Amino acid sequence: MTGSMRDVVRDASVVVCCGSGGVGKTTTAAVLGMHAAREGRRAVVVTIDPAKRLADALGLDAGLSSEPQRIDSVVPEGADGNGGELWAMMLDTAATFDGLVRTHADDPEQVDRILTNPFYRNMAGAMSGTQEYMAAETLHALHHDDRFDLVVVDTPPSRNALDFLDAPGVLSRFLDHKIFKLAMLPTRSGLKIFGAAAQPIFKAIGRVVGSDVLADSLAFFQAFSGMETGFRERAADVVALLRAQGTAFVVIASPRHDTITEAVWFAQQLRDQEVRLAAAIVNRLVPDFGSVGGDVGDDPSGDLAALVANVAELTAIRDAEVAALQPLVELAGDAPVALLPLLDQDVHDLAALDRIAADLF
Predict the structure, then answer these.
(1) Model pTM?
(2) Which is the most buried residue in 80, 105, 132, 276, by most CB within 10 A?
(3) Same-domain status, 200 and 320
(4) Considering the chain, what percentage of its residues have pLDDT values greater than 90?
(5) DSSP 8-state class, residue 310
(6) Closest to 44 in 3D by CA, of 133, 138, 130, 168
(7) Is 62 in a helix, a strand, or coil?
(8) Cβ-contact 335, 3 below 8 angstroms
(9) Residue 85's beta-bridge partner residues?
(10) DSSP 273-309
């Protein structure tokens, strides 16, 4: 290990938290952002977790909005002079997509034609990979927001997190695909929508998807005309950011065989795509209670012997958990690997985040 979690939070401009579901990924993202703020950084934490656990962990009863909101209670009194701030937000996929349309459209009329199109409204909420791409787009926008110098992203479970990494490239490939070019043909050839729908190939498509869906989709692509270049260039910028030196991927796991297997798989995928693994964090290990040995002496009730046996059992469980982590430790190489103990209560407020931060940093 040649670095520490403190180095990761200090040096990165983007931290992407990855891992399977239920390993404490959202909580960890909140702790990283909180520590960064206390170290003088202006950090924003983004979650796409629909369960809103980030808001719970930060003690926000009203939840999070789709715009960053400042968490004033994080930087303790007396530390205000360090310039640190913590902000948090919940990803709104549809609103982010709408914002991209407004950015790349030529005029308000084009914006209105797209945003009111039924095909677009369905696609914006249901198309595979949309959430992952919009998470990456939000990361890009916040990275270029002068209010922040660190963006911490809480991603979906790890198999989807790889989609998050690849989503901008998927969009670019779609814009270059022959199906997209076919759909844009009526626009480029000057055909009217209903005239295009009468063409043999579009009539065949209409029989499969329905004439209304076909008309809506052709109207969408006609409205989309001229925006491809902007979308393609933005996707390329997002890809570059995800692979930049200042972007740190942190893999998070718990000491169960399935989550370690997922974490190892994901870390290997990062390596294969030449993306830097900055750190690994393993939550909820059985704590190290030390060793208890020797004769228990006079113990008429047997309570002391039972306690000694309990410590021995917990020590054996911890040893097995640590042994299960070795594939992840080996794959991490020089990247720091932090082991965090199981707590005696759920994480639902800043005090609990403080306990985790004390162990992590």
Answers:
(1) 0.81
(2) 132
(3) no
(4) 33
(5) H
(6) 138
(7) coil
(8) yes
(9) 42
(10) TT--EEEEEEEEEPP------S---S-TTSHHHHHHH
Task: Kindly report the length of the chain.
Answer: 361
CA-based Rg of the chain, rounded to a whole angstrom? 25
Structure tokens at 212: 């209304």
* C-alpha to C-alpha distance for 271 and 292, rounded to whole angstroms: 42
Q: Is the dihedral of CA 42, 342, 161, 274 positive or negative?
A: positive
- Considering the domain architecture, whether residues 231 and 288 belong to the same structural domain is answered as no
Give yes or no for residue 128 having a pLDDT over 90: no
In sequence order, the β-bridge partners of residue 46 are: 89, 153
Contacts 24+ apart (CB under 8 A), 49-53: 49/154, 52/90, 53/26, 53/27
Q: How far is C-alpha 326 from the chain's CA centre?
A: 25
H helices then E strands: how many in the chain? 18, 8
φ, ψ (nearest 5 deg) of residue 154: -95, 115
In this structure, are 209 and 309 located in the same domain? Answer: no
For residue 310, what are the CA distances in angstroms to 123, 151, 219, 357?
A: 56, 43, 69, 28
- Residue 25 tokens read as 């990924």
Domain boundary among 214, 243, 272: 243
11 part of a folded domain:
no
Rounded Cα distance, 294 and 299, in Å: 13
Contact 173, 235 (CB under 8 A): no
Position 187 pLDDT exceeds 60: no
**Residue range 235-265, pLDDT digits in tens:** 888 888 988 999 999 999 999 888 899 899 9
